[in-house]
Model the fold of this input.
Amino acid sequence: MAKLKSLIKLEGSMEDLTFYKGTDGYFVRTKGGVSKNRIMNDPAFARTRENGAEFGSITASGKLLRTALGPMLFRAKDSKLTSRLVKVMAQIKNLDSVSARGARNVADGLNSSSSISIFEGFDFNARATLGSVLNSIVSVDTANGAVRISAYNPMEQMRSPEGATHFSLQVGFLRIDFATGVYDLTQSPEEVYPLTNGTISPVLTPDSEPTATGTGMHFILIEFFQEVNGVPYMLNNGAFNVLHLLKMS
Done:
């Protein structure tokens, strides 16, 4: 695969070359390779088929999580989230110690205690990580999903974008079963604070506990706004917003 450097940006096919646009620019690659029929049936490509099946499984798991997070994810994500999430899902899949090669999956990988160290602390917006935005201690009650943030001064212990006048805090409690695809997300009311000097000690509790079974996940969402004449406006399409996986249970 080569990167195209030209004043003329091409997309499509020309003889044995395929031109396409990716997130990092325009690329060109050659056609050809082994036929799909051979890959699907030739014993020599058994490993390829197994790898393909597992890749499809982890891709589906990543999509399921993104769907489950719904509006929280829409407000804080980066352009490479899908690929970053697939990478993490692949690491968790590799922890599956019960399924045959080609059938390893995220649901069984999560049964390993090592999955927690891989997944906890994941930031859905790499441009604004929790550690780079908030300098305070955050604790989670895994029973009801309540999140406590130790007393802090937003003007001194938060990195806020230029022009921001307010920020909001919200937490989510998700239970998700990657084997069945069933999930339930409950959220706390959104708490809005002005970016002024003073100490706050937020306690955010979801309205209820999720009814689904499966892996428990606890998230925090931080959004920044600029208020003009009493109307809040999101800054730069949410580029500075945080969505962080605090804890798994």
Observations:
- The longest helix spans residues 46-74.
- Residues 170 and 190 are 5 Å apart (CA to CA).
- The chain has three domains: 1-32, 42-119, 130-248.
